[in-house]
Amino acid sequence: MKSAMLMLFCLLLLFLGLPSFDAESTVFESALERPEVQRALDRFLTRERDFVQRGLNNAPHYLPIVREALEKRELPGQLAWLPLIESAYSVRAFSRTGACGIWQFMPSTAKWYNLKIDFWVDERRDPIKSSGSAAQHLTELYHYYKNWELALAAYNAGMGSVNRAIKYGGTKNFWTLCSKGLLKRETRYYVPRFYAVSEIADHPQKYGFKLDEDVGFPNFEMLRTDHPVDLAQLAERSGMKKETLVFLNPELRRLLTPIGRKYDLRVPRERYAKVLTVYHELPVGELDGVDMYRVKSGETLGEIAEKLDTSVSLIKLLNNIYNPRRLFAGRVILVPVGEDVEIEDESFFPKWGFNTQEISYRIQRGDTLWEIASRYGTDVETILAINGLSFESTIRPGDEIALWIETAFCR
User: Fold this and answer.
1) CA within 13 Å, CB half, 250
2) I want to staple 37 with a disulfide (CB 3.0 to 4.6 A). Which of 192, 260, 334, 383 is the partner?
3) CATH 3.10.350.10-classified regions of the chain
4) pTM
């Protein structure tokens, strides 16, 4: 509630007429000589080197999108490197606190900036929509603090945390607040890490890194769908890989467009004509992972769910059922197909299910696979299987692993 009130106050200041950005005022002053930044730089060049290179490998796909969003609001270009420390530029990055996407929006902040999160989509993963929201958020933070170091600290810790530090510290100097221990440890490291990673990203060859900016987000057209589309079927019949549609539409939480509402699906520009033809030829309701079921007289959702080994809540979500009492005999509803695990050659491998989504998780100091599995409602065997690991494998802080988890854990 307090953070919401602070954000409202910030927006009120904007409405009352704060000055627009001046080109000179948005230039970051070099802080490389500060010992805090040097320590962050040394860490990136040694223990976290793989993390930085992974981010530099991911970044070129989204940099044009991010830079366009920043330029639209006349923000400093160096902010394009902020997702490097937030997520290694991974759209599927998911933190232990529930932050998601390249900008690591928390659900509450995402809601404030109208990023939809529901059973079907998580727009925090959408690089275009989330970058626009992040640029707006950063603009408001800078207008409030008139200082980029405090604005970045607030992006990490929230305005309430930073304002309390300013109140008790009697200063708006970020480095002084850090020296007094008034900001939490993660935030004290956050700004130096941003300066350090910006230096590396601006001069990758100088530090022995690679950055290929010849790649980018593929050119696409929007396909307006008015009924659910199975991405696997659409891709196969259009002569392209399913992964192409998944990459263009990372906000989709499953391989289906939302049921019960229109949806704008990104498709490769060069394939648009073919995809449009295939879309109109796809049988409505023929979807992988779900079956059609005709309700019998007197049946309840609970009975149907028990009979088909699924949940009432999932059936309600799939069919936009708000009042189960109005379910009538003869109605055809969609139900998820059973999700049994497959055993092949005595090796365990979990089956990707309709009610499952994949997230990326970066190992933190002190993490164990058992604790991660418990936290996200999965098990160690599943984590090992989908990451090609064994019980003898070693994981280290900074390593990134994939998790297949139930949707309920991602809300």
Assistant:
1) 22
2) 192
3) 290-336, 342-410
4) 0.76
Task: Tell me how far apart the alpha carbons of residues 411 and 407 are, in angstroms, rounded to a whole number.
Answer: 7
Q: What would the pLDDT profile of 252-279 be if each residue is shown by its tens digit?
A: 988 889 887 899 999 999 999 999 999 9
Model pLDDT for residues 41-66, shown as the tens digit of each residue: 999 999 899 899 999 999 999 999 99
Contact 115, 130 (CB under 8 A): yes
Fold of domain 342-410: Membrane-bound Lytic Murein Transglycosylase D; Chain A (3.10.350)
**Tokens standing for 184?**
């939490």
User: Which listed residue (86, 149, 251, 400) is catalytic?
Assistant: 86
CA gap 278, 79 in Å, rounded: 41
CB atoms within 10 A of CB 374: 12
State yes or no: is 86 an active-site residue. yes
Q: Which CATH number applies to 2-207?
A: 1.10.530.10
What is the CATH architecture assignment of 290-336? Roll (3.10)
CA-to-CA separations, 184 to 32, 141, 162, 223, 267, in angstroms, rounded: 22, 19, 9, 46, 43
* Pairing mode of beta strands 220-225, 263-268: antiparallel
For residues 17 and 132, give the distance between their C-alpha atoms in angstroms, rounded to a whole number: 21
238: left (phi over 0), alpha (psi -120 to 50) or beta: alpha
DSSP helix/strand/coil, 95:
coil
The two three-digit tokens of residue 389, written as one number: 């690991």
How far apart CA 78 and CA 195 sit, in angstroms, is 9
Q: Which residues pair with 117 in a beta bridge?
A: 122
Contact 205, 215 (CB under 8 A): no
H or E, element range at 342:
strand 342-344
In whole angstroms, what is the distance from residue 236 CA to residue 232 CA? 6
Q: How far apart are CA 393 and CA 308, in angstroms?
A: 38
Burial of 155 (0-12, 13-18, 19+ CB in 10 A): buried
Domain with CATH 1.10.530.10 in the chain: 2-207
